[in-house]
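Example: Mitochondrial division protein 1.
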Amino acid sequence: MIRLWDASLGVALRTLEGHSSGVTALAFSPEGKLLPSASLDRTVRLWDLDLEAAT
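Written out as structure tokens, the predicted fold is:
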């Protein structure tokens, strides 16, 4: 599970669920709309972070 936080408010903005084991790597795309993640479950996921679409 990956949680995206608003650090200034201290609230979680979004929870990304999909990996079945611990996440070992994260990297934001230059424009900040995509988040690739790698896990010990031997998967890589590409998350769409368009937060306006999530609300």
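The mean pLDDT is 91.
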